[in-house]
Design a protein that fits this description.
Length: 338
Amino acid sequence: MDFTKVTKISRFLDPSQGYAEVQRLSEVRVDPLTGHTTRILDFPIKQLVKVDISSLVEKSRPFCPFCPEIRDQVTPKFSPNLLSKERFTRGEALCVPNPFPYDENGAVTIMTYDHYVALSDFTPDILRDALMCCIEFLGEVIINQPGAIYQSINWNYLPLAGSSIVHPHLQIMASSSSTNYYTSVTSGLSRYKEENRSPFWPDFVAEEKRIGERIIAATHDISWIVAFAPMGAFDIIGVISNASKPADISDTIMDALVSGILNILKFIDSINLYSFNMSIYFLINNESFTPHLRICPRVSLPPFDTSEINYMRMLHNETLTTMKSEEVCNEVKPFFAS
């Protein structure tokens, strides 16, 4: 398995050094499955200061459709022609149709009664109940719509990550149409198997364990790995074993999944970041595809809250980051120590 990196050297005359010639190094990394390229930059970023979002939280509270006082009255219900339940509930979690869906089967799971939950305050019960609601919804969809094979559970946490509502919620999709991510992954899986006569995911986990530079932790059920060529500032992958569809997520796998996600949220909080995107991917009836999760933090750069997404990502589909995956791995490991 190839973990390809190309070192780039830039030279210029630096006025801060009396116009002496200086060098800047960067890396171009190629994802071993999809071929997606990421550039790791030599760009000095000072330690980020924790952002006070209390005014954002309070400003969003009066108009929140997910708060318990009004959510039953203002959220839609599933059609009885499609699903057996009008809504799916578990604990404080409530799964309802997405009134502005991205595809034919879109749903939203409101995770908790609380309007705002800080990264370090999410509990196993909050996360487990919300994920189980999503899994129940996806399980019913595939029975009634066997073509809806591209299934995912997604999380935009706070507006910086693209969320229009502060109240914690997950978005669920079940589609007959592939996203670009699924297309690149499935193409990579087919190419890898043809070239190597073995499946990608077991080889990937085994190779990362052998190298030992980016593997955070591994159990019988989930291997947690920092992506070699991240899709964001950093990118943590959870490769789920012993499951091929949402209904295969056992209590043991769910416990490992919830524990790992909470560890990552605590790490993100510890480095004074406060927003992230997460997706859990399933592809039904595809033996080559292993369910997996990706979490990327979202960053706004001081002093002007500059977006991390510029022309390179928006128009060239090229990820930029200043954080090396191997260094991130070393910093995350203590959060999985227990």
